[in-house]
Amino acid sequence: MVDESTGTPERSGVKSSLRTLEILELLASDDQRRTITSIARELGSPKSSVHSIVHTMADRGWLQVSADGTRYGLGIRSLLAGTSYIETDDVVTLTRGTLDAVAERTGETVHLGRLDGADVVYLAKRESVHPLRLYSAVGRRLPAHATALGKALLAQLEPQAVDAALGPGPLRALTPATITDRARLDDELASVREAGIAHDRGENSAGISCFAVAIGRGSSLNAISCSLPDARLTDAHRDEIVTALSEGAREADSLLSRFGA
User: What sequence ranges are listed for the domain HTH iclR-type (predicted)?
Assistant: First the structure.
């Protein structure tokens, strides 16, 4: 097989494997279906190669095609693989009791999140007991700089590692309150390191506050958070949330350390 972009022979097995992974990562990154032309353009790959791989992935259930047969998104096998990852992840398993306890104590939405590059990914969730709740879902990813979970995680990194995680581009604003200035974010992370807890003040979703603490010191960076509408955030409730998260983090750290996770 010849690489159409260079006219040189390519190692088809390696190239196909890399492109398959790139296609999965692309379609998982923005939750929208794409045409083969769009996928090829985004990846800078020959359309003919992408066409063959996409059709194979769709035939095997890794991708799903739209009703008009022109756009592709993740398929059922991608879901099964993701579900298996969560069900077998040691941190998710060991912190189930901690998340339950924080949710029961606060009555608010609780998340477990993990840093993945410039984003934080939700790995587990406990729903609020209140009818007024925020939208979130396991598997959702958000810019780390715009969330309490992300700031709690970024604060665990050295400045050079923060730069590497966020990359050279501008910080994206999700709401008018999102911190987009790098110097201001650096100051915020310094405050998080000192206080041991991060606070998102409507930076991800307007009218929603979130508090988060980092847990563990293993190969992955994880944190737990508690989110609620500003209308329920009294001084007393904030103190209750901070205490519940801090105590939950100590419990989680003990378990993760004991089992080497």
Answer: 14-76
